Every structure is written in structure tokens, then in C-alpha cells.
């Protein structure tokens, strides 16, 4: 795959994945096109050597894998790549209708560590999952995407807030409800959703029961820079890693056990049935390797690459980085380290990743947070704790993490893809 084709499809994936539900649906489409078969969690699995499979949980998390070839078996352990499908956003509340001064709005709840200021004055659309009852009484869970600008969060004019540029804090309850239109009559939001589903092509909806819906910026992913050095998009953290891991799996030759794990709810702590702290991976391991003695031996030979974007050194805020550990955009993926185990990398796993980068002829960088600042975390330490698998935390460098629009180098995702392909096909680690 050429880098231009890789980025073009990455843009398509980002634009078509406004929520974790849509991201998983997009990954499912690509896996099926590559010959991977669905293994439903409520059925018995009959797995064949060399065949690709995937399983879903909650429609927002996914594990995809290729069974090792008959010759290789699980002798060399598993090559696992992990990412997360969720991003910070504004989610619609259960009873969201607001009617004020002739405008109708929706109450929203902040999901994750949202950088809130950039959400103002943006064309917003709405997407997610809607649960309905059919006319015969059965329940259905449907994806919905309005796919057009339907809302905005207007800023207050500087004339009415003279300190807006120097001393403004955002009240999430009162500042963030988006404006969707004008009406003097009470709006039934569930009736709006029913009509939108019908317009989307659904034909049998008796009642909208509930939903999980998020606002998102309508603006598409794009190149930025005089020489297109950068990419700008919503949800780069962490759909970029989901896409990169998926492409590495699909384009790897059958061999060792190759696995992609895309969990939900990382941005709020990973403690859910489909989060990294939940039992999803453990359940999968027990089904694929039912004999405990064999499973423990395989896990001892396995390596987990936790792929989640890293903080690139910002030219306007270079002092926020350790002077020797400021990753540059377009200078390669970043190995993330932290002495207090906020990242799971150790010298053994970082060496493995560096050697894979050498094999793939790709550059690699390192990130350590300033000693006087706190450090974020990823699914890496959680997965390492739950499974005991050797883990390395990596990611492409980016700017504006958790903003409504994020920025990364146009070369780094492809570099990570090449390294992950080498990882999937390495017979011994």
C-alpha cells in the first residue's frame, strides 16, 4: 500500500466514524472485505488455521485476529495491537429538550477530558446508536448519523464578556447546550429521532426507546500545510491507531497469532464490559486457548503494542516538554515511557519495538513527561495488569489532543503501519 492511498482511506474512515459504533461498523466492513469471518459471542466458535475472524461487544468494541497457520501454531505467542474507539465529545442527555427564548436546544454531558473552548461556533452534526421497538414487539439497535450540520454552540459576544480572552472559564451545564433551531412549541426529541431514522431508510419503528448520541464537527479530514505535511481531523485520538492497526492486520501474511483489540471507554477509565479493564480480552483468550496451561505459556511469549497518540512538542509551548523528549511530527512513531507505570513500556519491550522499526526502516522517537508534570495513561498498563503480557506503549505524535479538531503528521501513521506489519509477521520476539 502506498502512503497516499493509506491516507486517503484513513480520511474516509475518520469521516465515516463519528462515534465508536460507526467506527466498529467501518472496521467490520473492511474486515469482511478482507475475508475475515464474524464469531458471535453467543455462539460456539469453530476456528480454522490461517483464517481471519472478528468478534464484537456492545457494537463499540472489537477483537479481530488471524488464527496461526497449522505449522506455526501458537508456539511463538501472540502479536497483539490495541487501541480505543472512543474520543472526548458532548453526549446528549436522556431528557435533553430545552426551550428558551424561542430557541430549542439539547442538554449535553461532557464525555472524557474534552478541550471545551474549540467546540464553540462550529457546524455540528449528531450521530450514534438508537434503540427502537418494532411493530411486532422486537427490539432493534440502529446506527444514526444526521450527516449534515444541525447545531451550533454560539459564543457570547466579546462586548458582553470583556474578559473572555483573559479570564474565561466554561460552565459545562449552562454554556454548552447546542442550538438546533427556533420554536415556540415543545420539541419531542425521540419523535425527531424516529423521523430521522425513517428518512435514513428504516421502515418499521413503533417507538424510540433510548439512544447514545454524540455531537461531532461536520468538517471533514484534510491535509494542512504548504506541502501537505499535516493531517487535521476530529477523533485522531484514537481512531488513527484503530485504522492503522486494522490495516496492519489485514495486510499481514498469515503466520503467528495476530490480534487487534479496539476497546471502548478508554477516555473515561476503561471500566466497562467493553473497556480494557473489563473481561472482553480475557473471555477471548479463554475461548481461543481453552487449556489454561497452554494459555499461560502462550501469554508468556506474547507482546502487546498499545497504540495511542502521543504529545508532539508544540512550537508555541516547547517548555511543556522535557527538553530531550519532545517528539516531532513526521519524525516517526513515539515510544512512551513513565517511571510510575502510567505507560507499560520497559526496556525489554521498547527494545523489541525499536528493532521492529529498524526492520521496517522507519524512524522512532521517545516521550517522557516533564518531571514536574502529571502523566496521562492508556490501555497499556491496564491490559498488562489484567493479562501479564509484555507491553509497549507507542503512538504517533500529534497536536491539540482532545480538541474538536486534532493535528498529526501526514507520514507518521503510515510509518506505524509498516512497523506493526513487521510486528505481526515476526516469528520470534
TrEMBL record:
<dbReference type="GO" id="GO:0005737">
    <property type="term" value="C:cytoplasm"/>
</dbReference>
<keyword id="KW-0378">Hydrolase</keyword>
<comment type="similarity">
    <text>Belongs to the peptidase M18 family.</text>
</comment>
<keyword id="KW-0645">Protease</keyword>
<keyword id="KW-0862">Zinc</keyword>
<dbReference type="GO" id="GO:0006508">
    <property type="term" value="P:proteolysis"/>
</dbReference>
<keyword id="KW-0479">Metal-binding</keyword>
<protein>
    <recommendedName>
        <fullName>M18 family aminopeptidase</fullName>
        <ecNumber>3.4.11.-</ecNumber>
    </recommendedName>
</protein>
<keyword id="KW-0031">Aminopeptidase</keyword>
<dbReference type="Pfam" id="PF02127">
    <property type="entry name" value="Peptidase_M18"/>
</dbReference>
<dbReference type="InterPro" id="IPR023358">
    <property type="entry name" value="Peptidase_M18_dom2"/>
</dbReference>
<keyword id="KW-0482">Metalloprotease</keyword>
<dbReference type="InterPro" id="IPR001948">
    <property type="entry name" value="Peptidase_M18"/>
</dbReference>
<dbReference type="GO" id="GO:0004177">
    <property type="term" value="F:aminopeptidase activity"/>
</dbReference>
<dbReference type="GO" id="GO:0008237">
    <property type="term" value="F:metallopeptidase activity"/>
</dbReference>
<dbReference type="GO" id="GO:0008270">
    <property type="term" value="F:zinc ion binding"/>
</dbReference>
